[in-house]
């Protein structure tokens, strides 16, 4: 499935470079990987990202929305 594929891809990336800067990287609108996973409704990726200690679950995007707003 697409969700399983996305989860495996994220897992591979994080295993190769499990850094806070990668976990909390922000795009030009300030969105983090967690913002995207939540907005996409991908619960498996959300669980994977938040299982890492450095994942910032309260990161704001440029419109002052956290992943919880999605």
Please tag this protein with its features.
mainly alpha, repeat, ANK repeat, Inversin, Ankyrin_rpt-contain_sf, single chain, globular, Ankyrin_rpt, 70 residues
Short description:
This protein has helices at residues 2-16, 20-23, 33-40, 43-50.
How would you describe this protein?
The protein is mainly alpha-helical. The protein has one domain (2-54). It contains 4 helices and no strands. The chain is globular. It starts with a helix and ends in a 20-residue tail after the last helix. The model has no long low-confidence stretch (mean pLDDT 91).
How many independent structural domains? 1
Q: Please compute the radius of gyration using only Cα atoms.
A: 11 Å
Mean pLDDT: 91
Please report the total strand number as a whole number: 0
Shape: globular
> In percent, how helical is the residue content?
40-55%
Order of helices and strands: HHHH
The profile of the biggest β sheet is: none
- Secondary-structure-based class equals mainly alpha
Q: How many alpha or pi helices?
A: 4
Question: How far is it from the N-terminal to the C-terminal residue, by CA?
Answer: 23 Å
Strand residue content? under 5%
**Low-confidence stretches at least 5 residues in length (pLDDT < 50)?**
none
Keywords: ANK repeat, Repeat
Pfam families: Ank_2
Organism: Nothobranchius kadleci
Protein name: Inversin
């Amino acid at each position: 499935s697409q969700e399983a594929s996305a989860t495996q891809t994220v897992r591979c990336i994080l295993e190769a470079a499990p850094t806070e800067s990668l976990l909390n990287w922000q795009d030009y609108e300030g969105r983090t990987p967690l913002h995207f996973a939540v907005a996409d409704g991908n619960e498996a990726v959300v669980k994977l990202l938040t299982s890492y200690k450095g994942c910032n679950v309260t990161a704001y995007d440029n419109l002052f929305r956290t992943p919880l707003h999605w």
